[in-house]
Amino acid sequence: MPEGVIGRLRIVHYGHPALRERATPLGRVTRDVKDLVRRMAELMRGAAGLGLAANQVGIPRRVAVVQMEEELAALVNPEIVSAKGNEPAVEGCLSLPRLYGEVVRPAEVVVRARDLSGRRVEIAAQGLLARVLCHEVDHLNGKLFIDLVEESTLYWLVVPATEKAEQVIQPTTLEEALRVFSSAQAASSGDG
Ligand code: ZN
Hints:
Oligomer: single chain
Shape: globular
CATH topology: Peptide Deformylase
Structural class: alpha+beta
Helix content: 10-25%
Bound molecules: zinc ion
Mean pLDDT: 93
CATH architecture: Alpha-Beta Complex
Number of strands: 9
Strand order of the largest sheet: 1-2-3-6-7
Low-confidence stretches: none
Number of helices: 3
Order of helices and strands: HEEEEEEEHEEH
CATH superfamily: Peptide deformylase
């Protein structure tokens, strides 16, 4: 990672090539990796997300941050080693803002990874945390929730201009959603 890159990181949206890349494993946890993780954690908290993979900041390396109950965990080279059951639930993604839809995920998973001190960690997770872990590992493999979504359940969450009005759910199709993201991406290319 070239010097100075970390501070300028931002969450990239659908259409950015890093989101479709299979991230490469990390070797030693260097100071650059720790800086990357710190910055990813800031971006994730700022966006009120539950997880963020390095692909989502344009860096296809195998590291993700995940909100566990109280603490935030950094997972280096995470792998799902077992999965059980199937559970549908509504899911969204910081790289596909305002788009939501139902995805069937394992109800329980076991994930192995390394932490920032290089120690092996094993996380047994259920429900929402299992879902977040699967979603982040998918990102590291270049996969997005829209690849798995039950298309008839896709919707935009329309956030009202005034706080008093209620949020509105607007059904959409995958085709329309991708068109919206592609034109937004085209409009923003050039601003870095
Ligand atoms: Zn995501």
